[in-house]
Specification:
Aminopeptidase; 17 strands; 9-stranded mixed β-sheet; alpha+beta; 8-stranded mixed β-sheet
Length: 349
Amino acid sequence: MTQAMNKNQNIITIAKKTDVDQIMRFINQEWKNGHILGIHKEYFLYEYGNNDLLNFVISKNNNKINGMLGFIRSSSDAKSSVWTTMWKVTKVGGDPMLGVSLLNFLRNQGYQSILSSGINSSTKAIYKYLGFHVGELCQYFISNEKLKNYSILSIPKESSFYSNSVSRELSKKFSVRKISQIELGQRFNFNKTDSKPHKDFEYFKHRFYRHPFYEYDVYGAFEFGELISFLVVRVCTYEESTCIRIVDFYGVEDALGALSEYLKEIMYEDQHEYIDFFCMGMSQERLIEAGFRLLDNSQSTTIVPNYFEPFVQSNTSISYFIDNQNLDGLRIFKADGDQDRPSLMTRTL
């Protein structure tokens, strides 16, 4: 389906590249004035450009945009899964069902699944009504016990870090090192991994290695010379303090202990305050073995911040949906969708 019209004469279609200026104006007017995607065309096209098309479903009435729904594909496969982003309809005088019409149009494009990360709590009832599964990511962390004071992390002094011998033993089975874009493409078998949504090399190359603003590092775990797992990290800074954030993981979970041991050495050497990991679908047992602790959002004594632009020292939950109830193999991470990108124009390409 390339175009649809609802009862209110709204024409719904996949956006063309020629629509970019009008979408950016709509973002400034209806989403947030000054948002980076409303004022930086080059970055907009990096995120959503697709040859002559844009990865946006838009609605027009009298040739004027009155609704939009962005999406990000998980692979170069035409029938990949997609994450929804930037879902908005005109505030005043609009069709109350237009948002659902945009989503249904996207669902009819034949993608394997539709997901979203960072959904608003006020919309959860709508997704459940549509038959979606709704949940929350878990946040795990490893604190740097060698530091006396923290500026980002807030943790009770009596909550001492414990050295995980299980993690150290597991790490001996694998070798870990930083891997380049070329090495990832040549040495990792993306077709061997059955987690969903399926991601391919083109996704990781575009999303992380070629990101125009953020600098990501990719670390791989090798078993008998075979690259079996890798994770993606980004260092976040607040004033003079830093932390390591794992934003994606792909491959075999058995190597988590080796990867965490490697990251801990970096944490100690560079004096990062902690390592954190937002995820869904990963084995909690494996994560605990790897030295992580699960953050309990119901208490306020331990704070592992999520927002850095601007910085907010509070715990933040990340909710998600998937448009079916089949959770087998489902994994969701911090960088999925639009959860790890700049929102304000604080950088230049």
